[in-house]
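User: Phosphate carrier protein, mitochondrial, Papilio xuthus:
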Amino acid sequence: MTSESSQYNSKMFSSLLDVARNSPFRGPLSPAQCEPIAAPQVEQSGMAAATAVQGDSCEFASSKYFALCGLGGILSCGITHTAVVPLDLVKCRLQVDPDKYKNVLTGFKVSVREEGMRGLAKGWAPTFIGYSLQGLCKFGLYEVFKVTYSGMLDEETAYSYRTFVYLAASASAEFFADIALSPLEAAKVRIQTMPGFASTLREAWPKMVQNEGYGTFYKGLVPLWGRQIPYTMMKFACFEKTLELLYKHVVPKPREQCTKGEQLVVTFAAGYIAGVFCAIVSHPADTVVSKLNQDKTATVGSIVGKLGWAGVWKGLGPRIIMIGTLTALQWFIYDAVKVWLRMPRPPPAEMPESMRKRLEAEEAAKSK
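Assistant: Predicted structure for Phosphate carrier protein, mitochondrial:
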């Protein structure tokens, strides 16, 4: 290729980039650039620039932005949890009756033999409603708390301690998300693990109220917090950190040069890695929750004493598969919703310029 041809191609490519930058149809994949909505803390956070790009449907950290994040959470959690109801049903039965449902394969065979293929969908309604409400709070409030907590810190501190910000924001969000989820989770476990109790949510809900009162819906709330808060802390902090590392060390080009599809693939990969760790961290509490909702006379201590250390890990294999896939799909759907709704999507956290210059100056001083 001649030098004139190279120069021509270079100019043409630059022109195309300029056209893309100025196009009114550009997506939200470039860093968001909008004015902070209330205070300059969002600018100082180092977590994400509060800026809006031409073509964005809302400003970063605005009320509309948080509301749309909640919508993304509804879709990501409601759809994915409902899709894996058959595996969840077998997992719950494995946990509460390991003698009958010895492993995943046996669990499916016994369930289909006794109730038919339709029986594998038991509990889909409370699952869909409960996890949609949980997703609304989990993702929507996470974004609120992340902006709020990072805004309390100066730019360099927010960057240096960003993992702690992720952990605190996700724990705060999940605290409220589980209050929304707990009643539906209790109904779901009863439907799935107590033969003859009820086949649908409409049948199970009034029966639970009549027999045990409304308190039964929150009997498993504390163990649910014990399961879901560590899970969500790992889910968000591990995802954020993994995404950052993938773009830094694995993806061969900067994020802003990746297509929408490429970015979503990276999102899926980071989500799956986070999901594996989530499943391991939260599994013992998940077993306890299933047992508590099955037996109204049981306590956390009696369950742990009966099952033993090995018993609380029953069903970990299918849960790793289920939660890994779930978490990856949730992040994929959540990010895809942001693309679809043209929402700001700030890149992973980057070191503030002031911090970079200070560290370079300190390094230079040491080398003298």
